[in-house]
Every structure is written in structure tokens, then in C-alpha cells.
């Protein structure tokens, strides 16, 4: 049995903890490998944020002919060379992942990398199921950064179907003619955008009436309208049965008009993710979890067991890379300076959905504001109402802000339209640093006629008290 100063489980954000300040620590990293190739480096790098956004940008470029049409510029989409796109994306990603793995194994003398799944077998004791058999390791401190994995719903017949999740769909050998996507959340809408822009017919299956229904009510409604124009959206559906008929997948549904079937060559399951705490047998390690399987942590990321920290998707209610990275920095500090711990700050957490159109959001949605006692006013500014929006000929985008009617304190901001994730950043900054809407709108220059005038006007439109 080997004993370490520190064991880190998971090489997504967990991999970033070690820097030169840990050079005299005896450290083990345990990583089972992620995605179809069992890669090093976690979800975001290998099967999440980074490859998806490389495909999203490619999809946006493939849509240039549609954009050009309304501007009077005739463009044509020639070939979509899927294998070239895929190999370009993963040619970069795979090299970074294997470089990161090589660096830890070969250049970090104080680090032992176990490339196998680990599970707790006692307090601060992990059994690693190596190819040579189980190996037990113990440590003074553990960091659990084991992330999560896609949920596959229990549909009758699913085990006989050759389906994809976000872990595998980006490595398809060829583009299908048709793709069924189960789910209407982040993963579903990003891949619907990617594949439809590349010429695939999309059928999107949702359990509720709205697409991206967790977004602000006006944003979700607008996105749902646009989704119905782009894709075959089937809301309010329940999956009854699924079957593989040669190359074709047939899904039997119940909907508002009764029973129906949809068919496609490929199926993408995008119905949410679950934390990997079960794979780790957290209970055997005394590590408490909530009903949804997330590891319980306090504001310093400590779990219920002394010396065991957790971060990222395995414990956080936010399944976002910028949150996992923030929590990683908190854990890193608290490992190094246990007598002066710092806390995670989840007060202003933004997110973006990189679909078509993209969405970005921070703070309260209107439905959340309504459900609490908070007093608020809102304003909406269309892209079409500011000069650069005219240049874009945008007809669907808008920014919506919520603020306290007296102080002008910003409570939430939501943008749907081109460059939403960039445009929202000054609003995130204002909320984080307590800048009120009046000061923000009138206390600085806004470049004319640039797209951020959208934000300026949304702020100026707020019906604040005099
Ligand atoms: C398709 C997709 C797109 C996304 N896009 C974005 C985006 O644009 N922006 C954004 O902010 N977020 C995005 N996310 C979310 C983001 O990827 C995650 O929030 C983030 O990667 C979580 O990091 P983590 O370190 O907590 O876990 P991970 O990066 O998942 O790392 C966990 C690691 O632990 C390993 N592991 C698990 N169990 C064990 C075990 N028992 N033994 C050994 N090793 C184990 C896993 O193999 C994995 O490598 C996306 C996610 C997906 C799926
Ligand atoms: N741009 C980003 O930051 C980004 C991108 C992708 C993923 N992520 C993260 O990953 C997480 C997981 O993404 P996701 O899209 O898998 O989850 P999600 O929670 O966003 O969406 C899952 C959707 O599937 C629906 N659903 C569940 N079971 C279903 C069923 N049987 N049939 C049809 N629909 C069903 C749910 O109602 C929900 O709308 C996100 O919450 C997000 O935090 C972030």
C-alpha cells in the first residue's frame, strides 16, 4: 500500500492544481480516461467545451450563404468535408491531451499517474483497478475532481440501438442524412446547430413545450420560435420504444396528437449529465452526497471527510468549466494554506449556449425574480434597434436586463443574438463589482456604432425611479 501527501482523482480541472509549489509533495493522479480513446485531460478538452466550439465556429462559417442572402451577397455552400473538419479539430485536441499526459508522467518526478478507475474503500483510502489488479493507495489529502457523464434514459429497446452521446458524436465516420436529438438543453441545441449547418436534417425531441426552458422566459420563447423554423422540433413528447432497423433508427413517441414515429440514421442522446460519485463509491469513503449524487461541499470546497475536497461537476450545481476552474483555484489555495482558507464565489455565474443564435445569461431570469420577493424592472433592446444591428439585418436578437427599480442595481442580463457571449461580459463585470445601471450606461463612452450599444440602450431603457 502506497501513501501519498495528496491524491487527485480526475484530470479535468483537477489537473490544474499542481504547480511548482507542490514540487516537494508526493502526489498521485488517478484518471480512468475519458471519451472513446480513454483520453487524459477531462471533459472540456476532449469531449466538451473546446471541440464543440471548434465545430460551432465551423457551422457558423457554413451558414454564411444564408447570412449573405439577406445582405444582397450571393454565396454558395460548396462541399462540407466532414472528415477533414473532424480530423482538424481532433488533430489539435488529441495532441494537447497526449502532451498533457506525457508532461505529467515524464516531467513530474514527484507525481505518480495511475491510468485506471479509482474507488473509495475506506476513509482517505482508494482502490485503483489497474490492469495488473487492484492497488490500494492512501493519502493525507484527496481532491475529488471526477466530473460527470451523460445520462442515458431508460427507453424500451435502447440497449439494441447504436446511439451516440456528446462523448462520441463528434467522431462520427460520416455525416448522416438525418439525426434525432433527444433533449432540448445545452448539448442538444449546440449539436443541432452544428449538424444542421453542415447539412443534416435535425429532429429535436423535447419533454416540455419550450426549448432551453431554463433560460429567461423571453429568451427561451424566442429561441423556441427560431428552433421550430430551423429544425423539426417535437415538443411535449414521451419516448415509448426505440429500435434499430439496419442502418435506420426508429423512435416511437407519444405526443399531443397521439402515437407517432420518427426515423434517422443517427441518434444523439442529450438528456443531461450525472455526477461520477457512484463510480467512486463515495459512501465507502465516508464522503456525503446529495440526492442527485453531487458530493456535498462547504464554501471552501471541503467534503464531509477531513482532508477530502471536491470541485467541478462532481460537486457543483453549475456544470460549467469556468466554475470548475474557479473551484480548482480555491482548492489549490486551501491545500497550500490550510490556516487561511478562501471560499468559492458563486454569486455571479454566467453561462452561454453556443447555438444558432447564441445565448448568454447572468443572474436572475424574470421567472426567478417573479418567484421571489425581489422588486425589479426590466427592459429589452432589439439588435434591430441599434446601428450595428441594422448592419447585421438582425431581426430576432435582443438584450434583456433586470434591475432594482430604485438603486438601479443589476439583477440579471440575458442576450440572444450574434456575439451574445462577448456582449454580456461588461454586464457580468457590472454585477460582480456592483456598478449600477445608470452609472454603467452614462458613466462611460460606448463606441459608436458598435454592437455594445445594444447593452447601453438596454440599460437606458430601464424604467428606473427618478
Ligand atoms: C458537450 C459539452 C460541451 C460543453 N461546453 C461547455 C462550454 O462551452 N462552456 C462551459 O463552461 N462548460 C461546458 N461544458 C461543461 C464542462 O465541460 C464541464 O463543466 C467541465 O469540464 C467539468 O470539469 P471537471 O474537472 O469537474 O470534470 P471533468 O473534466 O469531467 O474531469 C473528470 C475526470 O475524472 C475522471 N474520472 C471520473 N471518475 C473516475 C474514477 N472513478 N477514477 C478515475 N478517474 C475518474 C474522468 O475520466 C475525467 O477525466 C460542456 C460539457 C459538454 C459535455
Ligand atoms: N455552453 C456551455 O456552457 C455548455 C454546453 C454543453 C453542456 N454544458 C453543461 O453540461 C450540462 C449538461 O448538458 P445537457 O444538455 O446534457 O443537459 P441540460 O440539463 O441542459 O438539458 C437536458 C434536457 O434534456 C431533457 N430531458 C431529460 N430526459 C429526457 C428525455 N427522456 N427525453 C427528452 N428530453 C429529456 C431535460 O428536460 C433537459 O431539458 C449543462 O447543464 C451545462 O451545464 C454547458
TrEMBL record:
Disulfide bonds join 44-49. Residues 4-325 form the FAD/NAD(P)-binding domain. Its EC number is 1.8.1.15. Keywords: Disulfide bond, FAD, Flavoprotein, NAD, NADP, Nucleotide-binding, Oxidoreductase, Redox-active center. GO terms for molecular function: mycothione reductase [NAD(P)H] activity; nucleotide binding. NAD(+) binds at residues 183-190, 272. FAD binds at residues 53, 118, 313. The active site is at 448 (proton acceptor). Its cofactor is FAD. This is Mycothione reductase. The keyword Plastid does not apply. Binds 1 FAD per subunit. Residues 349-458 form the Pyridine nucleotide-disulphide oxidoreductase dimerisation domain. InterPro entries: FAD/NAD-bd_sf, FAD/NAD-binding_dom, FAD/NAD-linked_Rdtase_dimer_sf, Pyr_nuc-diS_OxRdtase, Pyr_nucl-diS_OxRdtase_dimer, Pyr_OxRdtase_I_AS. Belongs to the class-I pyridine nucleotide-disulfide oxidoreductase family.
